[in-house]
Amino acid sequence: MTDEKRAAIIGVVTASDRASAGVYEDESGPAIEAYLRAALTTPFRIERRIIPDGLESVRDTLIDLADAVGCDLIVTTGGTGPSPRDLTPEATLAACPRELPGFGERMRQVSLAQTPTAILSRQLAAHRGKCLVINLPGKPRAIELCLDAVMPAVPYCLDLIGAAYIETDPALVKSFRPKAK
């Protein structure tokens, strides 16, 4: 059962060697946060992390946010390409054994309509207990495109896994919940 009584806790994780080292300013994490603040109408709080790329750093951060912090939703950015340090999908599956393949399929579908290099992206979603994790690409424009594509299903997914209840602003994102019989 979903938890309708408390504010959701949402983790926003940027996986980037350069951003975590201060070489450049993270724009992707703030883009996710701005999207969520515009799209969600129910109370929530954000837990932000900027971490290096890599299997262990991402896996351990996801486990900490899900288990210790109690996040209901974690949205990651970065590390979804084919370069050697892009290991966010592998780290997500190491932390979250139940993949939800439709999320990745949908994100690639809408992304391919914009750019042929979207075929290189390895976004996915999975869950660890009552926490849904969604991997997004690293560019702010691609983040918005992908969130627009999958956000309609996120509130109901959170209901099904027993996470906090969230609602979206239907003028921005029309979420879908099947009608009760």
Question: How would you characterize the overall build of this protein?
Answer:
Helices cover 39% and strands 18% of the residues. By secondary structure, the chain is an alpha/beta fold. The protein has a single domain (8-161), classed as MoaB/Mog-like domain (Molybdenum Cofactor Biosythetic Enzyme, Chain A). Strands 2-1-3-6-5-4 form a 6-stranded mixed sheet, sandwiched between helices. Helix 2 packs parallel to helix 6 (140-150) and helix 5 crosses helix 6. The longest helix is centred in the middle third of the chain and has 15 residues, at 55-69. The radius of gyration is 15 Å and the shape is globular. The mean pLDDT is 95.
Offer a quick outline of the entry:
With 181 residues, the chain is an alpha/beta fold.
Strand order of the largest sheet: 2-1-3-6-5-4
- The outline comes out as globular
What number of domains?
Answer: 1
CATH superfamily: MoaB/Mog-like domain
The CATH class name reads: Alpha Beta
Q: How many strands in all?
A: 6
Distance between the termini: 17 Å
Q: Unreliable runs, pLDDT <50, ≥5 residues?
A: none
Gyration radius, to the nearest Å?
A: 15 Å
CATH architecture annotation name: 3-Layer(aba) Sandwich
Class based on secondary structure composition and strand pairing: alpha/beta
The secondary-structure element order is: EHHEHEHEHEEHH
Q: Number of helical segments?
A: 7
Strand content: 15-25%
Query: What is the residue-averaged pLDDT?
Result: 95
Give the fraction of residues assigned to helices. 25-40%
